[in-house]
Write a structure and sequence with these properties.
- The complex is a heterodimer of chains A (about 300) and B (about 160).
- Chain A has about 300 residues and is mainly α.
- Chain A has one domain.
- Chain A has twelve helices and three strands.
- A three-stranded mixed beta sheet of chain A has the order 1-3-2, sandwiched between helices.
- In chain A, helix 1 runs antiparallel to helix 2.
- The longest helix of chain A is centred in the first third of the chain and has 38 residues.
- The radius of gyration of chain A is 24 Å and the shape is elongated.
- The two termini of chain A are about 20 Å apart.
- Chain B has about 160 residues and is mainly alpha-helical.
- Chain B is built from six helices and three strands; from the N terminus they run αααββαβαα.
- Chain B has two domains: about 80 residues, Arc Repressor Mutant, subunit A (Orthogonal Bundle); about 45 residues, no CATH class.
- A two-stranded antiparallel ribbon of chain B has the order 1-2.
- The radius of gyration of chain B is 21 Å and the shape is extended.
- The longest helix of chain B has 23 residues.
- Classes of the chains: A mainly alpha (about 300), B mainly alpha (about 160).
Chain lengths: ~300, ~160
């Protein structure tokens, strides 16, 4: 039954590989939550399996087993994973936990800073900021969020387009996207194979917010136009002291042509009309559920097996 | 329950739309002028809702109010915008790439995107002129290749 412990690892690899393709087949309204759920399943399965493999190392080492007062069952040593596997797993667990702690610390600092800013701004969801660079963004804190738009951004849009931009940013707050992003950042910290998930979730959140804004304003083309104008104004805005390096660095991570993440892809998606498919394809749903059940089931089974000596 | 949620959202949206109209106007507006401007943008609103929203925005310090005739005229408050800028500085000063708490409207642009964006904007403009053209078919995708004659950034 020892192979059970490997199954969550295999499932998390499968999720990491299939996530980009599966995201494209999921309608925008379900995409952020589905990707985040998949990332959580993959990361917990990954970490748990590694921890179980690391635990098997303790049974391998008689000194350690005595020290921990383990009841090592009289079983042939071939039934345990090789000790090199146990050692590698133990190292991987340590690295994963340390990385996770560092990421959580960074996220907590960002979140507290955002919360402070939310409280400093007066009541009301939308705030105009005097700034010569066009920009609009949503800040999500712990208790609430704010939408901030610069005067330069307002200047390059007409009234309908402004409403569309603000609806888009408010949708991020309504969808609690900053929480999803933080969860996915933690998952990627634990499991290096999920490194591309934060970017996918970012792109999914943008599409979600685009479609939500279209639903509230009822003007698909207006939002597309606003996106185009805002993007052009951002590109053309002079940035003394800070050349476009930041934008370029970020773009190199974003432009993959697959994730609907770039502004151009978002505009094209908007102009293509209401998204199809509108429902989650049944085979995809069945496959995802099966993976989840198999992963959790095998993890539980393997835990009972691996942790028996520790009771 | 659902009704209550949507009613609250509408109040927030109303403030957004009204604020946007005032930032777009060249001079301070009376409630009825604001109502007219909103109507031009396709928002048919009762005079009382516009007036209430203006008063609420003023109470929040987002609008200036000056007496004019028998009523008031409203203008967006540049002071509020500047104060906001000061409040934001701490967060924006860091500028450390992607932060989970910030969702930018546009992110991830390269200079190469300009031509694509112009073409897409041209497609969007032609959509407005002829809303039926969306159903035209897949041939449209090719049209987006060429930059269109649009100069959209009127900053």
């Amino acid at each position: 039954m020892r192979y059970m412990v490997w199954i969550p690892l295999v499932v998390s690899v499968a999720i990491a590989v299939a996530a980009p393709a599966a995201a494209l087949r999921t309608p925008p309204w379900a995409r952020p939550a589905a990707l985040t759920g998949g990332a959580v399943l993959a990361a917990t399965g990954w970490l748990w399996s590694l921890a179980l493999l690391a635990a098997s190392l303790a049974q391998r080492l008689p000194g350690l087993a005595r020290g921990l007062d383990l009841r090592v069952p009289p079983r042939p040593a071939v039934d345990l994973p090789p000790s090199t596997v146990g050692a590698v797993a133990a190292g991987a667990v340590v690295v994963a936990v340390l990385t996770l702690v560092a990421v959580v610390a960074r996220l907590a600092r960002d979140l507290l800073r955002a919360e402070r800013m939310v409280r400093r701004l007066p009541d009301g969801r939308v705030h105009v900021v005097a700034h010569r660079l066009p920009n609009a963004y949503a800040v999500g804190g712990v208790t609430d969020g704010r939408v901030v738009v610069t005067t330069a951004m307002l200047a390059c849009l007409d009234t309908d387009e402004r409403a569309a931009v603000l609806a888009h940013e408010q949708a991020h707050l309504a969808g609690r996207h900053h929480w999803l992003r933080m969860v996915v950042d933690c998952c990627a910290a634990v499991d290096p194979l999920l490194r591309h998930l934060p970017r996918l979730v970012d792109a999914a959140c943008e599409r979600w917010a685009d479609e939500r804004a279209v639903r509230t304003t009822g003007q698909r083309v207006v939002l597309a136009r606003a996106l185009g104008k805002a993007a052009l104004a951002t590109l053309r805005a002079p940035r003394p002291g800070r050349p476009a390096a930041e934008t370029v660095a970020r773009a190199s991570r974003t432009v993959t042509g697959l994730d609907h993440g770039s502004v151009a892809e978002r505009i094209a998606a908007l102009l293509d009309g209401p998204p199809r498919p509108d429902r989650i394809p049944v085979p995809l749903a069945v496959l995802s559920l099966t993976l989840a059940v198999v992963s959790i089931g095998s993890a539980v089974h393997a835990s009972a097996d691996c942790l028996a000596p520790f009771r | 329950m659902r009704r209550k949620g949507s009613a609250r959202r509408e109040a927030g949206e109303l403030e957004t739309v009204v604020l946007a109209v005032l930032w777009g106007a060249e001079q301070p507006l009376t409630p009825s002028q604001a109502q007219e401007a909103l109507a031009q943008d396709g928002h048919q609103l009762a005079y009382t809702s516009v007036a209430t929203t203006l008063a609420r925005l003023h109470a929040k310090g987002l609008l200036h109010r000056t007496p004019a005739g028998r009523g008031h005229v409203y203008a967006p408050s540049p002071d509020a915008a500047r104060q906001n800028a000061d409040r934001m500085r701490g967060l924006l000063g860091e500028g450390s790439g992607r932060a989970a708490v910030l969702s930018h409207f546009v992110a991830g642009l390269t200079a190469d995107d300009e031509a694509t964006l112009l073409a897409l904007l041209a497609a969007a403009e032609s959509d407005v002129a002829d809303p039926g053209s969306r159903q035209a078919g897949p041939g449209e995708a090719e049209d987006r290749g060429a930059p269109g004659p649009v100069g959209p950034a009127r900053a």
